[in-house]
Design goal:
Layout: H1 2-8, H2 13-17, E1 21-24, H3 25-31, H4 38-45, E2 51-54, H5 71-83, E3 88-89, H6 93-101, E4 106-107, H7 109-118, H8 124-131, H9 140-150
Parallel strand pairs: 1-2, 3-4
Amino acid sequence: MLGRLHKILDTTLLPALFDKVILPSSVQTELTDPDAPPSVRTWIADPPAWLQVHETPRRQSYQASLEGLDEGEAAAIALAISLDADLLLMDDRKGVIAARGKGLRVTGTLGLLDLSAQRGLVDFAQAINRLRQTTFRIPDALLDSLIKKYSPQDHNI
């Protein structure tokens, strides 16, 4: 999710929304992968001060209950549980289901954009148009309905 946000928005959006943003070290490692976009690798190589990287909990401590998830998603859920996090940022559908099953509050990219638009931090339609240029996949009809939420209404008198 951080990689996607970095591509479509100024990542300073996160500290504008949240007091703390904490990332598992295993996710930081994923963002340095050669397959990650160069701008993301450069950004995570020198993370901003508002981003705290915490050691990923030992896999054995959560492996059985989060089996079938990618390492990053499982680590994020385990870390959120261990920190009693207020909110987990995640887009992976399996991960979201698992996190909610553990009682965590979860939001994804669209939820962040919605919250940001509500607070006047982004132009929602522009952010969605940039999002459509990424690998993010969601039905166009849903995106269009969300855009209408923030479009000025025609007021015929």
